[in-house]
Amino acid sequence: MKCPICGCENPDDYKFCHDCGSPLILSESIDDLTSELNNRDDFPSLDSRKLIIAGYIIAILFGWGSFILSLFFGSYGFIGFIGLFFPGFMLNSKDSNIRKHAYIQLAIMILGIICTILFLFRLV
After folding, report:
1. What does the pLDDT read at residue 104?
2. Contact 63/112 with Cβ under 8 angstroms?
3. Percent of the chain clearing pLDDT 90 (strictly above)
4. Phi, psi at residue 99, to the nearest 5°?
5. Model-wide pTM > 0.85
6. Structural domain boundaries of the chain?
């Protein structure tokens, strides 16, 4: 492959010119690489960040909201169990970052539900 900058002849498997160090990648290949980098799952997309934030809001509202309702109104602790569906849904994601946050959200919810149950049965 001929270097577009200095004209030096390089083997076909070289990515950079061995004489001047310029990239030997064609512009089409650069477009392919940038599109590949943009489609990577290493960085959470805007939609996945919204999903993670929504999951934390639901975990706090349902997990700890049931505890607060139980403090003021009595036996509303069952509401916390409804919120377990959303992190359960998130656990089915292919994105490891979403799954990691789903486990954290489950822990937050379960802790809130346990505190609610302990309060309702006056074990605290």
Report:
1. 93
2. yes
3. 5
4. -65, -40
5. no
6. 1-40, 46-120
